[in-house]
C-alpha cells in the first residue's frame, strides 16, 4: 500500500497544485467554480495528513475505512493520518465545496495537537459524515473563508498561529454540529441499540460466546458497518451508556438466567458467557448487581 509522508507528495499524487505552505493547503470553491479534480481512481493509500472536506454535487462513491459513501448531498467529513482511503473512476468530474489538508506536524507545539485527538469524528467511517444544515453550512463557510484569506497572505510570524486558531474554531463548531446530529437522529440511535443487542443475541445463540469468548466492541461495530467510536458515541448520547457498558449489562442479564440452573458452578456460568477468568465475572456481577453471583443464586433459591 502506498504511503505519503509529506503533504506535497500526497497532493502531487492527487494531481493537485503544490501547497503555498509545505504542511498546509486550502482548496476552496464555495460560491462559484469547482474544486480541482483528484485522480480519477486510486487503490488504497495512506498519508500523514489531516483532511477536512466539504463536498457537494459529487457523483459516484469513495471508499473510506470499511464503507462506501455517495456524495450526492453536501457533507462535511474528516480523515485522520494513516487512515486508508480509495476511490474509483465513477467519482465526479466536478465538485463544489472545500478541502483543507495539513500534515500532523503542522500542529506541533500547539494546544490543538492534543485536542484534535479528542474529536471522535476523525475516527468515524465516512458514512457517518456530518450533514450540515444551511445555517451551519454558512457558519463553516465563513470560517473557511477566513482560513483561506490568511493562507493566501504573505506568511509572517503570526500566520501559523492565526490559522491554527481558526482551525480550532472550525473543529469546535463541527463538534457542536455533530452533537446536534446525534440528537436529531434519535430513531437511528434506537435502531442501532436494537441491532447491537440482536448481534449479541445471535452470537450467544450460535454458541460462539462460550466457544470464542466475549466479542470486542470493534467486532460488533464491524458487523453493524459502523466505527467503534461512532457506535459508542451514539449509544452514549442516546442512552447514557457506552457500548462497553451495554455489552456488560447484556452479559449480566444473561448471567441472571443461567444462575438459576443449580447444576452449574459459578465458574461454569462464567465460561458459558465467554469469560476467560471466573473471578472477573464475579467482580463484574457484584459491581453491577450489588451482590455476588453466589448470593444472588442463594437469594433466588430462598424465594
TrEMBL record:
Protein name per UniProt: Helix-turn-helix protein
This protein's UniProt keywords: DNA-binding, Transcription, Transcription regulation
MF-aspect GO terms: DNA-binding transcription factor activity; sequence-specific DNA binding
Domain of life from the UniProt record: Bacteria
Gene3D superfamilies, per the entry: Homeodomain-like
PROSITE patterns on file: HTH_ARAC_FAMILY_2
HTH araC/xylS-type domain location: 198-299
Matches recorded under Pfam families: HTH_18
Organism: Dyadobacter jejuensis
InterPro entries for this protein: Homeodomain-like_sf (IPR009057), HTH_AraC (IPR018060), Tscrpt_reg_AraC-type_HTH (IPR020449)
Amino acid at each position: 500500500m502506498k504511503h505519503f509522508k509529506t503533504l506535497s507528495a500526497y497532493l502531487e499524487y492527487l494531481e493537485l497544485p503544490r501547497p503555498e505552505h509545505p504542511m498546509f493547503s486550502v482548496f476552496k470553491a464555495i460560491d462559484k467554480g469547482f474544486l480541482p479534480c483528484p485522480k480519477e481512481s486510486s487503490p488504497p493509500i495512506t498519508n500523514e495528513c489531516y483532511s477536512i472536506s466539504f463536498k457537494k454535487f459529487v457523483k459516484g462513491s469513495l471508499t473510506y475505512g470499511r464503507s462506501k459513501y455517495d456524495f450526492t448531498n453536501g457533507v462535511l467529513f474528516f480523515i485522520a493520518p494513516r487512515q486508508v482511503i480509495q476511490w474509483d473512476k465513477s467519482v465526479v468530474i466536478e465538485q463544489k465545496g472545500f478541502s483543507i489538508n495539513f500534515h500532523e506536524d503542522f500542529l506541533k507545539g500547539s494546544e490543538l495537537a492534543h485536542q484534535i485527538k479528542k474529536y471522535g469524528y476523525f475516527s468515524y467511517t465516512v458514512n457517518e459524515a456530518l450533514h450540515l444544515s444551511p445555517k451551519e453550512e454558512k457558519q463553516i463557510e465563513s470560517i473557511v473563508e477566513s482560513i483561506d484569506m490568511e493562507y493566501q497572505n504573505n506568511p509572517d510570524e503570526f500566520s501559523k498561529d492565526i490559522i491554527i486558531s481558526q482551525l480550532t474554531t472550525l473543529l469546535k463548531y463541527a463538534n457542536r454540529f455533530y452533537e446536534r446530529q446525534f440528537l436529531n437522529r434519535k430513531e437511528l440511535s434506537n435502531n442501532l441499540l436494537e441491532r447491537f443487542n440482536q448481534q449479541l443475541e445471535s452470537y450467544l445463540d450460535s454458541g460462539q460466546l462460550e466457544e470464542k469468548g466475549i466479542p470486542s466492541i470493534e467486532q460488533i461495530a464491524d458487523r453493524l458497518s459502523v466505527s467503534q467510536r461512532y457506535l459508542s458515541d451514539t449509544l452514549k448520547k442516546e442512552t447514557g451508556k457506552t457500548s462497553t457498558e451495554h455489552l456488560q449489562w447484556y452479559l449480566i442479564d444473561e448471567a441472571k438466567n443461567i444462575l438459576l440452573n443449580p447444576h452449574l458452578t459459578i465458574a461454569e456460568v462464567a465460561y458459558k458467557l465467554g469469560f476467560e477468568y471466573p473471578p472477573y465475572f464475579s467482580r463484574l456481577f457484584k459491581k453491577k448487581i450489588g451482590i455476588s453471583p453466589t448470593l444472588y443464586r442463594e437469594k433466588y433459591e430462598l424465594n
